[in-house]
Amino acid sequence: MNENMLKHDWTKEELLAIYNRPLMQLVFDAATVHRQWQKPDEVQISTLLSVKTGGCPEDCSYCGQAARYHTDIKVQALLPTETVLAHAQKAKDAGSSRFCMAAAWREVRDNRDFDRIIDMVKGVNEMGLEVCCTLGMLTESQAQRLQEAGLYAYNHNLDTSEEFYDEIISTRKFDNRLETIKHVRKAGITVCSGGIIGLGETIDDRVSMLRSLANMEKHPESVPINALARVAGTPLADLPRIDIWEMVRTIATARIVMPASMVRLSAGRIEMSEVEQAWCFMAGANSIFTGERQTLLVTPNPGVSEDMQMLKNLGLKAMVLEKKEACAN
Ligand code: SF4
C-alpha cells in the first residue's frame, strides 16, 4: 500500500454509496481497509491541553469558549511555558505519543504570546513527542515559524460541510479554513483536519465534509471525527445526542476514503460506552484523546487509566512512535 494508490477525486455519489451501505457490510469493508493500511491493534494516544481558554471572539455555535455565550467555562490566560512542559512530560510518561496545545484564538497574532507558543513547541518537540497546535487562522509566515520550531502537526478542522458552514459559524468562511490549511501544507507541517457530527447537519453535509478532506491534494494525515459535545449556554446545547451508528458510519467512510490517515475518535467519547467505542475502532478509528485532567479542552473526557483499561479489554495497545527524533530546524 502506498500513497500513489490514494484517490483524490471522490464524487458525492460515491461517498453517499459508501456511507449508506448496510451497516455490517460498511464496518466489514472499513475494517478490511484498516487492516491493509494500518496496524489494527494499535491506537495512538494523544493528549490535548488547553493552553489558553475561553474569551474567543468567534461565534462557533457548538463552542463553550466563544465569549458571546454564557457558559460555565472560566477564561484562562496563556499558561506559563513551564506549566505546559510539565503537562507534556506527564502525558509522555502516561503513554501519549502526541501532545496537542490549543488556544482559543480567532487567529495567531505576531506578538509575545506567539513567541511563548514557539517556546512551548520547541520544548515539547525536544521531549520526542509529536507536537501539534490548534491556534486558529495562520498566515504563511506564522506557519513557517512554527515549522522551524519543530511543529509536527497543525489542527484546523473544517467543522462541517461548505454548504452548512454559515449555519454554524458566521464570523469566518469555509474558505478561510482552506486557506490556513494551505499555509500549513506549504510550510511542510502535517495537517490534522476533520469535523463534528451532530450539529443538525444532513447526511449529505457529512459526506460533503469528508469529500472536501478526501479530495485535498494530499489527505490530512490526521482526521478527527468529533461527536457534538453539548455545552450548556451554547446555541446547540439542546440538540439530541448523535446516534452512535451515524458516528460509526462517518468513521467508516473516513477510513475507506482516506486509508492512510489516522482517524481520531475525538470529542463526545464520554457519552459512549466501551462497546460503542469498540465499534468505532472496528470501523477504523485508531486514535483517541485522553488526559490526566479528564477533559477534552473544556468538555468532559474519559481519564487515561480508564482508557488504558479499555484498550486492554479490547486487545488494543498504545501506539509507540518509531524512533521519533526532535524535528530538525
Ligand atoms: S471553536 Fe475555536 S474559534 Fe470557534 S469559538 Fe471555539 S475557540 Fe473560538
From TrEMBL:
Reactions performed catalytically: (4R,5S)-dethiobiotin + (sulfur carrier)-SH + 2 reduced [2Fe-2S]-[ferredoxin] + 2 S-adenosyl-L-methionine = (sulfur carrier)-H + biotin + 2 5'-deoxyadenosine + 2 L-methionine + 2 oxidized [2Fe-2S]-[ferredoxin]
Binding-site residues, [2Fe-2S] cluster: 100, 132, 192, 264
Cofactor note: Binds 1 [4Fe-4S] cluster. The cluster is coordinated with 3 cysteines and an exchangeable S-adenosyl-L-methionine. Binds 1 [2Fe-2S] cluster. The cluster is coordinated with 3 cysteines and 1 arginine.
Group of enzyme by EC: transferase
One Gene Ontology term of the molecular function aspect: biotin synthase activity
Transmembrane segments: none
SUPFAM superfamilies cross-referenced by the UniProt entry: Radical SAM enzymes
Pathway annotation from the record: Cofactor biosynthesis; biotin biosynthesis; biotin from 7,8-diaminononanoate: step 2/2
Residues annotated to bind [4Fe-4S] cluster: 56, 60, 63
Cofactor(s), by name: [4Fe-4S] cluster; [2Fe-2S] cluster
Keyword Iron-sulfur: yes
Assembly, per entry: Homodimer.
Function: Catalyzes the conversion of dethiobiotin (DTB) to biotin by the insertion of a sulfur atom into dethiobiotin via a radical-based mechanism.
NCBIfam families: bioB
UniProt similarity note: Belongs to the radical SAM superfamily. Biotin synthase family.
HAMAP family linked to this entry: BioB
Protein name: Biotin synthase
Organism field: Sphingobacterium tenebrionis
Organism phylogeny: Bacteria, Pseudomonadati, Bacteroidota, Sphingobacteriia, Sphingobacteriales
